[in-house]
Each structure stands twice: as structure tokens, then as C-alpha cells.
Amino acid sequence: MPRTPSEATDVLVVGGGIIGLVTAWRSAQRGLSVAVVDPAPGGGAAQVAAGMLAAVTELHYGEQTLLGLNVASARRYPQFAAELSEASGQDLGYRACGTLAVALDADDRAHLRELHALQQKSGLESEWLSGRDCRRLEPMLAPGVRGGLRVDGDHQIDPRRLASALVTACERAGVTFHRRWAERLHVVRDRACGVVLSGDGGSAPGAALLAADQIVLAAGSHSGRLAGVPDEVVPPVRPVKGQVLRLTVPPGYAPFLSRTVRAVVRGSHLYLVPRVNGELVVGATSEELGWDTTVTAGGVYELLRDAHELVPGITELPLTETCAGLRPGSPDNAPLLGPTALPGLLLATGHHRNGVLLTPVTGDVMAQVLATGELPEEAAAFTPGRFCGRVPGDLSDASLEQPV
Fold first, then answer.
1. CA-CA 20 to 30 A from 137: which of 31, 167, 234, 284?
2. What is the pLDDT of residues 137-147, one digit of tens each?
3. DSSP H or E segment with residue 280
4. Which secondary structure element, helix H or strand E, spans residue 285, and what is its range?
5. Cβ-based neighbours of 262, under 8 Å, separated by 6 or more
6. What domains, with CATH codes, occur in the chain?
7. Tens digit of each residue's pLDDT (9 = 90 or more) over 315-369
8. Are 229 and 237 in contact (CB under 8 A)?
9. In degrees rounded to 5, what are phi and psi of residue 163?
10. What is the 3-state secondary structure (H, E, C) of 57-70?
11. Is 328 left (phi over 0), alpha (psi -120 to 50) or beta?
12. Distance from the Cα of residue 56 to its chain's centroid
């Protein structure tokens, strides 16, 4: 039998990635007692993400509703970053550097023109530039650049620093960390009231029951794998693989890029994100390959090939890291935020490619609903109820009955 703790916490967050951590931090600031279950808090997709805060350049047709949430979160980032930096004593690598999206051929140029029109129709600020103007801004760009969009409001942050700062801020706010797996949701009389933790084989062997008044499932792409969750409320999230490269601009080297540069090359989206410390992040593939996180020779080759076509000088830089991670994709590429049909269970998952961007607004939304029971209006379109009873086939596989 699982061992039962003597006292329940107000909020138990399953998942210690940036979404789970910001939920825990903001909830603790509201005066709630909070615990996080994760064997390695601060890990997850944030360790692979590039950290683009691209509400404007990430706009896609059919995602205008999501755009509102993205813009709201982007507006909060300067204050959020300053507050978190003060709370943690850490630099987050936040840069208000802007973004340049460029086209390498006539088809891409036409696509960017359409995107520019959609941005303007949506009330977003972006400026169309000729290829020559693009190269004036970023001299390292290839001569063949045909035009581009300058978006001064799309910035960047270092997700690894963000995750580390959130762990520290949580600790300082009194959040308790249980560095173990959540094995199963504990449900009593049709209400979620805790999770069973896996045994760690150490000083506290055997499974333990961790009780809580409210449980937030924020385990990223693994959110659909927690055993014990009724089928009708299992979050319909799936893993979307992304491979990313990190290069280093050597000290004393001429300035390489001054801002994030994005492009579509051979139909694949490409971005280059320069850090102040000389790191250059290149990504990212988007692969529907289940739980595979293998870095492949083909993925690395394609990223370097496309990056070289966009910025020829990139092949002179040292390649310092290759990695792959899993984004939590939802059926409509938007997050699931708030209470489920199972009392006591809430979701904060499914952020797909916008997890870093949506960190501030997610923390605010989840803290408010946890503290008051009221979901903010800005999150009304993103409740789990929009997928009620919709469970992807791959989530019903018995092999998913694994710890989260």
C-alpha cells in the first residue's frame, strides 16, 4: 500500500518543466502551498528550445485565436523577466533584439508578402524590406536574399537560464520539490486528490501517496501518459520531435548576427538565434516520430545545409552541441489550460512551439484559477473542455502506462 503523507498541499504540479515551474511559482506567490513532482526539475523541452518570443513572426493562418494569447504573453515578458531575475538572482538572457524573417526565392518571397498582409490585418507591427535592406541589417546574409520582414517586437530569451531561474524562484517562494516520478493519479469518489510517487530505492523506498487539493498536469508531451487519469480527460497531446544545433562564435570574431533570423528553405522552417555569450542556436526540425529523441545525421546535415544557404559563413563556426527534444503538440496547436471534467484535476500542457513564449501568461492564468476558481477571460478559448472525450489512438496504448 502507498504510504500517505500527514498533510495535503493546496496545489500539486506534475511536471517540472518551465510551464509546471511557472505555475508553481505564481501559485506560491498567491499564498498557496505548492509541491512539484519531477525527478529533474528544469529539464524537458526547455533544454532544447531556442527561446524565440515570436508572437508576430510565428503567426499562422487559422491561429488568430492563439495569436491573442501569444501577444498578451509577449507584452508581459519585459516585466516578467525583470521580476523573475530579481526573485532568482539570475540573468535570463532576455534580449529585445528583434527578428528578421527573410525569403531566399520567389515562392518564399510571395509567402512572406502574404504573411505580412495577414500581420497587418491582425493589427501587428512588421516592416517589409528589400533584399538589399535585409543585408544592410545583417551583412552575413547570403546575396540571394529576395526580401524580408523586420519585426522589432519579436525578441528572445535563453530557455535554459529561464528554467534554472524558475527552479530557484520556486525554492525561494517555498515550493516543495519531490524529485521522483509521478506513477499514477489518485482518484477517490470521482475526484483527483493526489498522485502515487514511484519508489526511489533510497532513503524513502516504496511508493508514496502525495495528497493535494488540486493537481495540475503539466508534464509536456508526457502529459497523456500518467496512469489513472480517466480516458475522457486524458489530454490529447502528442510528441513532436525537434532537432537543434548549437554553434559558437569565437571570442574576437567579427559580429555574426545581431538579431534572430528566420527563413523557409526548401519548404522547411529555419531559424538562427544569436546569444550575447556567442552561442548561435540553429533549428529546428519538426518530426512526427513518436517518442524518438535520436539526433540523426540527416537532421544535422539538413539544418547545416539550409543554414549555410541562408548565412554562408556559418560553416566556419565550431559545432558545439546537437540535441533533440519533444514539443507537446495538441490537435489545434494551442495549449490546454484550466480545469478538466474531473474535479481536482487541471491541465497546463499542449503548448507545442509556443511554450517559452506563453510562460508568463500561463503562470498568471493557472495561478488565478487555482487561487480563485475563476479562469481569466483570455484563457476561455483554451480550456480542456474543447477536446472533451477526444483521445488520440496512441494514448490508449498500454505501453503508455509508464511513470511521468
1. 284
2. 999 999 999 99
3. strand 279-283
4. none
5. 54, 57, 99, 100, 101, 102, 269, 270, 271, 272
6. 9-47+161-237+331-400 (3.50.50.60), 97-154+239-329 (3.30.9.10)
7. 999 999 999 999 999 999 999 999 999 999 999 999 999 999 999 999 999 999 9
8. no
9. -65, -45
10. CCCCCCCHHHHHHH
11. beta
12. 17
Classify 267 in phi/psi space as left (phi over 0), alpha (psi -120 to 50) or beta: left
CA atoms within 13 A on the CB side of 91: 5
403 close to 182: Cβ distance less than 8 angstroms: yes
Contacts of 8 (CB under 8 A, 6+ apart): 193, 194, 211, 212, 213
Q: Can you read off the three cell numbers belonging to residue 311?
A: 548565412
For residue 284, say if its preceding peptide bond is cis, omega within 30 degrees of 0. Answer: yes
| Coil, helix or strand at residue 208 | strand
Cα(267)–Cα(250) distance, integer angstroms: 31
Say how far apart CA 367 and CA 362 lie, in whole Å.
8
pTM metric for this prediction? 0.92
